[in-house]
Amino acid sequence: MYERLANILAQQILERCRKGLYRNYLSKTERLAYIRGRVDLRSALQKPWDVKLKCHYHEQTGDIEDNQILAWTLFMIGRSGLCGESVSSTVRKAFHALQGFVTLTSFKPEACIDRTYHRLNQDYQLLHALCRFFLYNTGPSHEKGDREMLPFLIDMASLYEQFVAQWLKTNTPKGFFVKKKHRVTHDQNYSDRIDLLLYDIETGKVQYVIDTKYKNPDRVASSDRHQIVAYANAVKCNNAILVYPQHLNHRLDIKNGDLRVRSLSFSLNDDLNEAGKIFLTSLLPSTVSYS
């Protein structure tokens, strides 16, 4: 529904741009080298040497709230990423049609209520009603509002896993490739799924087993350590990595024969791109490089 209404709004705005945007007269005061509107005589007499006169006049312009609300709503829709490419293209086209005439100004949904309409801007009533819908629903806020909604939960553990996987896939260090959600079978009755595997391109062998943990303990739990060791043994890998969203007070770095088990952090508290680079540098201190 969001996408279909966005398409309707963008099409209606494009149609209004083809007909011509509604314009209104706005009061302006400027110092000009020529007379326009009403001259401020007191200012002119106080500074008779100033060749520029202070003038009060009205200018007809399309850069008014009626059109600014439309531009801001299109901007918010485009930034939301909730529409497919076809509708997003129409939204961008409508936004660019307004951009040359309208100043981009932020508005709250309440700005769309109790506006004055007449025969010159009657069609704006529907446009502003749609804008109100989008400005209310484009993004949630953590603050308490005056509307009720259904409660929902976000699986942050899964979201963190997907984020780290996508970042690592986008920023894979040279000489490696990433595989996500690799399933391993321990016996005929039990199988498991590994979050991330980092392979060596030349040999095709697993170099790092990576498991994300969205929690903030003081130290690595024994259950997490046993789990990552089982993963590493299942794929015959000598480097097992547990990744946390914050630095642990007691980091893990132990060796069990040829197997090395470590805890690293991909912090969510700072710039995410910089946090990712720090994570990669800790993971591959001697081999990491960026293209």
Gist?
The protein is of the alpha+beta class and 291 residues long.
Output the structural class. Answer: alpha+beta
Radius of gyration: 30 Å
Write the H/E string, N to C: HEEHEHHHHEEEHEEEH
Distance between the termini: 41 Å
Q: Main sheet, how many strands, which sense, barrel?
A: 6 strands, mixed
- What is the 3D form? elongated
Q: For the largest beta sheet, what order do the strands appear in spatially?
A: 4-5-6-7-9-8
Can you count the helices? 8
List the helices and strands and how they pair.
Layout: H1 2-19, E1 24-32, E2 38-39, H2 41-46, E3 53-61, H3 65-80, H4 85-99, H5 124-137, H6 156-170, E4 176-187, E5 190-200, E6 206-212, H7 222-234, E7 239-244, E8 253-256, E9 259-265, H8 272-283
Parallel strand pairs: 6-7, 7-9
Antiparallel strand pairs: 1-3, 2-3, 4-5, 5-6, 8-9
Core attributes:
291 residues; alpha+beta; 6-stranded mixed beta sheet; 3-stranded antiparallel beta sheet; 23% strand; elongated; disordered C terminus
Question: What can you see in these coordinates?
Answer:
With 291 residues, the chain is of the alpha+beta class. The protein contains eight helices and nine strands. The protein has helices spanning 2-19, 41-46, 65-80, 85-99, 124-137, 156-170, 222-234, 272-283, and strands spanning 24-32, 38-39, 53-61, 176-187, 190-200, 206-212, 239-244, 253-256, 259-265. The strands form two sheets. Strands 4-5-6-7-9-8 form a six-stranded mixed sheet, with helices on both faces. α3 (65-80) crosses α5 (124-137). The chain is elongated, with a radius of gyration of 30 Å. The two termini are 41 Å apart. The model is unreliable at 287-291 (pLDDT under 50).
